[in-house]
Amino acid sequence: MAQQTPYPPPQYGVPPKRSRGPVVLVTVLGLVLVAVLATATALLLRGRDDKPTAAAGSKPAAADSVQFRSVLSADPQACNGQSSGPQAEDTRCGGDGTRYTLGKVELDGSRVSEVEAAQGQPGPDWVVQLTLDTEGAKLFGALTTKLAAGEPPRNQLAIVVGDKVVSAPVVSAPITAGKVQIAGNFTQQDAEKLAADITG
């Protein structure tokens, strides 16, 4: 009786079976990579949608729609809640009732190349951002250099829109980059309205 071997006899003409392990592994890794990329893309797009976008920027329609003037004096509550209406050429009221006596117009809307409402960083409040042209940036740099050396309230910059001081920040250092940010605890609606008032 012939002795049986534990191994089957070789078969000729039949290709040897290859393991499918590497093919399955590569396929699974490819699917995982596609899923990761799809998730990352969705998160990026969602992040863009969740972030408030700036209102479309445009230039002021009239040169006198916005003015930058130095503050000569500030008298809190002197406007008695009146923030608009006829006033002397050198005085304007602020939204908080302060009456400002102002210097000459140092810079106006003719030097503003873009106005946009945007969410301030960091924080939830909105701001109005103004971009100045090259000449406007030079004038603004000279103005803020002068104001930064002044004593209160002569270190304040009045930003006048129409007949109202919408902001009068203290200038602590020259601003030469040609970017101006008007802040005032604005909501999105407030900032968009102010931007619209400036652009006319």
TrEMBL record:
Alphabetically ordered keywords of this record: Membrane, Transmembrane, Transmembrane helix
Superkingdom in the source lineage: Bacteria
Region listing for Disordered, in residue ranges: 77-97
InterPro entries membership: SecDF_P1_head
Membrane-crossing residue ranges in chain numbering: 23-45
A Pfam family the protein falls into: SecDF_P1_head
Annotated ranges, domain SecDF P1 head subdomain: 96-196
Protein name: SecDF P1 head subdomain domain-containing protein
The species this protein was found in: Kribbella capetownensis
Source organism phylogeny: Bacteria, Bacillati, Actinomycetota, Actinomycetes, Propionibacteriales
